[in-house]
Amino acid sequence: MIDAFAAEWYKLRTIRSTAAVFGAVGVFMLLCVLYSWYVGHYWDGLSAAERSRTEASPPDQLLAVTLPVCAVVLGALTLTSEYATGMHRTSLTALPRRLTLFTAKAGVAGGAMLAAALASLAAGFLGGKAVVGDRALPTFHGPAGATAAHLLWVGLAAAALTLITYGVGAVLRSTAATITSMLGLLIVVPVLTRLLPSPWDDRAWSLLPEALPGQIAAAPGTSGGEGVLPAPVAAVLMAVYVAIALAVGAFSFVRRDA
Amino acid sequence: MIEVRELTKRYGATTAVDRLSFAVRPGTVTGFLGPNGAGKSTTMRVLLGLDAATSGEALVNGGRYAALRRPMREVGALLDAGAVHGGRRAFDHLGWLARGNGIPARRVTEVLEQVGLAGVARKRVAGFSLGMRQRLGIAAALLGDPGVLMFDEPVNGLDPDGVRWIRELMRALAAEGRTVLISSHLMSEMELTADRLIVIGRGRLIADTSVRELAQRFGRGVLVRTPRPAELTEVLEAAGGSVEPAPGGPATDGRLADGRLAVGGLDVEAIGDMAAAKGIPLHEVTPHSASLEEAYMALTSGNAEFTADAKTQPTTEATARRTS
Predict the structure, then answer these.
(1) How far apart are CA B189 and CA A199, in angstroms?
(2) pLDDT of residue B151
(3) Same domain, yes or no, for B95 and B192?
(4) Which residue, among B17, B48, B74, B99, would best test binding to A if mutated, counting the most A CBs under 10 Å from its CB?
(5) Pair (B151, B268) in one structural domain
(6) Considering its fold, how many domains does chain B have in total?
(7) Predicted local confidence at residue B227, as pLDDT
């Protein structure tokens, strides 16, 4: 198992698409800081009355929206890029114990995504907070514990999406099909849930992967109220999604001919 | 040591490998021959645990490949030289393989030198020619210094120097006591490289023989043309010769349709004397030295006599259907 993890980590860090994905995460982190500078600048031009009515998005908002896309791409490429070239056969020849290989790939991709997400969220948030300084923006100055919990769950949700996509990729075996399906789930399905009659629109939306971190630990200082699930239920649901995707993916990976 | 026993692999309604049995022993280069689609690659994929056998078994060193903990130290395989990520550097492609099998990193440098890719070790594989990819694939197979080696069409895409290099490498690896199995659809290449031959067609074993035996079986024949082939066949077979209709079919010569027979086990003089004794006219008697290439073509021509060879394969319903 250690050999398999080491080999998969070696693979992940020696292809350029990995650098591209994490490069994108880095760029969005910098954009979080730029956004914070803009908010501070805008704030300075407001009257006291306007300031009391203004709610700025928290500094990590940009990352919270873009991390899922990066997570989907990483999760898909981890396996489907090998099917495109036939590399999966080379991988299975080197590491023929399939469940071990599947686990190592999941661990490396999920772990790398979690580390990159948490690092970029922390840097983006703290950078943004430093840029706005002592301006009284509530979304920038939440309690440390609640802020940390919020960032942690946004990061965990990104890692969860990487794992879900990885499981889907093991079944579909195609980069295009996997990324299209998952981005459809992230971008199109939320819009469709809004077409349902109330209160089913909120209920359906609350079940979507991207809606879960906000229901578990909302960004401090935001008005909140999005989603109808209690935090523990949302957390369990995230774990269930990951477990189902990985179980189906592992079954497909272990049982089908390579 | 590679053992395949009664191996069958079906993909839906297609039978790719049909009750195939053979063994590959150490110290020899064994050629695995058959036309495209004969089931060579499928057999190798089953041997490497990539595809599951429908029935039967395929063993390496007495066990299943998929059960090996560090397989590259026991078995080196090259199935598809294109199965590499183009964005990765040659050194890194071997690097992750080494890491996954507990092979020291210095072996990466060693095998890259051995296959002549040391100069491009830090180049991305996407820029490699097919020949360079073949060399990289061979380097990967050699990485763990394994006792068993399997190569699927290793000379594809290589220039004449590369072909000779492969030939010498395979022979050297076998001389070190390793088990070497090379698949090919080119008999001309195997003639120069292999000691033993396993010939398959339509997933079934056609011949498991040495190169020398095959050359003798097909190479010392006499081609006879006669207007009375049935009578001559009877006479020659009674004398202990083997007689088979020769490729090319009956030739029309004047008014008579002559039969062409490939006769084995009898020389030109004996055939001529016996024909004269029985008064059978002969229109042509040619000592025929078939090349291995021709022998192979005859073996794999898809002709019923060869695919339903009663000596190597019992006739099954499937065969009956196929040859009817």
Answers:
(1) 74
(2) 95
(3) yes
(4) B99
(5) no
(6) 2
(7) 87
Q: In this complex, is the C-beta atom of A11 within 8 Å of any C-beta atom belonging to chain B?
A: yes
For the segment B127-152, what is each residue's pLDDT rounded down to a tens digit? 999 889 999 999 999 999 999 999 99
The boundaries of the domain holding residue A247 are 2-255
Overall domain count for chain A: 1
- Distance (Å, whole) CA A3 – CA A9: 10
**Residue A172 carries which side chain, given as an amino acid letter?**
L
8 Å CB contact of B100 and A94:
yes
Instruction: Quick: pLDDT tens for B166-216.
Output: 999 999 999 999 999 999 887 778 888 999 999 998 899 988 998 878 776
Shared-domain flag, residues B150 and B297: no
Taking the Cβ of residue A19 and every Cβ of chain B, the question of whether any pair is shorter than 8 Å is answered with: no
* Longest Cα separation, chain B: 77
Helix (H, G, I), strand (E, B) or coil at A61: helix
**Which residues span the domain enclosing B252?**
216-323
Say yes or no to pLDDT of A154 above 90: yes
What residue type is assigned to position B263 of the chain? V
Residue A116's H or E segment, with its range, is helix A98-132
Which residues 24-83 of A have a C-beta within 8 angstroms of B?
81-82
Indicate which CATH number applies to the domain containing B242: 3.30.70.980
Distance from CA of A209 to the nearest CA of B (A): 31
Residues of A in contact with B71 (CB under 8 A): 93-94, 96
